[in-house]
Amino acid sequence: GPPFPTEANVPRCWCPGPGTAQALLQHGIPAAKIDAPRLDSEQFDSEALWQVVAAQVKPGHRLLLIRGDGGRNWLAQQCAAQGGQVEVCSAYERRVPVWSMQQRQQAQAAASRDAVWLLTSSEGVGNLRHLLPDTDWGQTTALVTHPRIAAAAQQMGFGRVVESHPAIQAVLQSLKSMH
Fold it and tell me: Label partner for 127 (CA 20 to 30 A): which of 2, 100, 133, 175?
């Protein structure tokens, strides 16, 4: 089989957040080869990652961007603007989930004043709007992990939108402080 990853045979790996970085570590990528926003960063997104990696990109720098089909182009655009050569690989397909009648009923029941919905992507908010198009979210709270998600939840009509830092401990603390 292929040799175990070492610093000598592994390219730099950029991660927008700690979940991706942890997955790379678990698969043997050396921590010294992983670039990611600090755990206390305001956000875990392409913009926060760019603050960490921008200095690496020079004319001719080669970047393989692995993402979901239809993902944002922002990071690729930043690299290209600095002369980087960007290849995009779609590793998974983004699509609206298919719910059973029971799942739809559970979600509809959770659209109440006592429920808190944890929303971690703008795309997820759009999927929810598609799956429950006639739902009144005016009495429901959305706990969100990014300003773009907050804007999407407000536009959808959530009665209360609470922003949280995206780290799991911050999300848990936000949930505790709501009650």
Answer: 175
Q: How far apart are CA 138 and CA 32, in angstroms?
A: 47
Cβ contacts of 37 within 8 Å, gap of 6 or more: 16, 17, 43, 44, 48, 49, 51, 52
Neighbours of 177 (CB within 10 A): 9
pLDDT in tens, 121-165: 898 999 999 999 999 999 999 999 999 999 999 999 999 999 998
Question: What single letter denotes the amino acid at residue 121?
Answer: S
How far is residue 34 CA from its own chain's centroid? 17
- Between strands 62-68 and 85-92, the pairing is parallel
How far are the Cα atoms of 36, 37, 93, 127 from residue 31, in angstroms, in the given order?
Answer: 10, 13, 28, 35
